# Entry
Amino acid sequence: MAEAMEKSASSTSTKSPPELAQDQKWRIKDHWKCLAACTLMSMCPFQYGLDFGLIGGLQAMVGFLKIFGYEAPDLPTGWNLTTERQQLISSLMTLGAFVSSSCAGPIATFIGRKTTIWLASLLCVVSNIVMMTTTNIGGLYAGRTLLGLANGMYMTFAQLYIQECSPARYRGLMISSFQVWTSFGALVGTIVDNFTAKIDGPNSYLIPLGLIYIVPVLLSLSILFIPESPRWLMSKGRVEQARKALRWHRPGTDSDIDAEITDIQLAIDAESDREHSVAIMDMFRDPVDRRRTVLAVCGLTVQGASGAMYIIAYGTYFFQIAGIGDAFENSCILNAIGIVAILINSAVITHYGRRRVFLTTGLIICGISQLLTAVVYHVNPSAQSTGKAIVGLAVVYIMGYNGMIATYAWISGGELPSQRLRSYTFGLATAVGFFAAWLTTFTAPYFINPESLGWGPKYGYIWAPSCWISALWVYFFLPEVKDRTLEEIDEMFEARLPARGFRKHVCIGHPITSVGTTATGEKNAEVFHDELKV
# Structure
């Protein structure tokens, strides 16, 4: 398997011969320490997925509804949540994540990736203590907000660590494991909800909430044994610490390590020559940085534009209100299929893994399944065949989303920013992504809750066109950077290549310090097109 991955990676490379020869020296097993560290960091989104898996089920549990909801004899459970409470319980977590990810740039100015993960773990534990001990809706809102702050830090800084530490050819594989943990967390949450929903009383939701403690404790202990991101250390001028960290992460001789350290330093110097300090407005001041910021933000936001958040956050409630079989079992099946889709994706991402193709195809599939779901329910909402069709279309949707959209959206958001502005740009991209998630989870109850519009599955009428518009944007504007190092991506952006020029471009191995001029004084052709004129 490892040999096949190596052959695939080298066969599609567009690097210069010396770089290609260097890459072919090492197999996947030679990078085991780096990949193990990245896998550990990729566990962070387990919390994010677990929360969505749990909270979707909690809103359909009688034990939870008796404390935070109201009696509703007309509904299958006999209880319901007001639209306002449903909005806030689900959306405050994503609002908190939006706030903490928005602060990623300033946070990274002072503390590293590992320290931020420790802080997130502490916040996670505190938030869960609040949620488990309160019976007041205000206390629950506070706990949800604190948990969101923790999850925003987890999702942003774990991604930054993986993007900065993983070898170029395995970057996609590591980010796909990031998505595996998200879906695994959601599956665990829905399975536990399925069993505890039958318990009468508060324990039905307190037992699932207890699971939130596991990963923060495990992460807090485990990251003691891995080094800080070498690129972050280099950006702070801590060269010897960066060299030591890179030596831990990489196989090879001291000269190999020195060569990569030199490449990183040259890229940092090239960016510093243009701007001597880092500020929020730097993301938009320079045309190249502005383009990279727009691409990173839009690339990550297509995840939210697919409409996945209402399926993830309200899946169990959605199935229950629509009267489609056993709501908890349907959610478990859906999450299990989602994991299968991601595992299949993980097997092909290093072989193929082209961002543009997967994102475009996935968005088209998700749009079609959303539209068909709305049409089927609109035509005959009460038929048993309609329920089966909706579950089947939900399976198609989750295969398209987990297998083609989620992983590649996160990859695009993380690998396109410049090194100098990576924390700021990726933080902004993540924040916008969380804002889109918050907007979806906040407004969805208006559409699906019987107390409001009561659309149920007809909500798909809104998300189908959103998916297709996003697919068009990806096709025309998103560059293909599979198997490229972060320094090569810097070079191609500085050369102002059009989006379709990235895939086959042969990098010359020197950072470009100004438009059309390399660090050695050679001239490069300037390429302009409409997407640069922002």
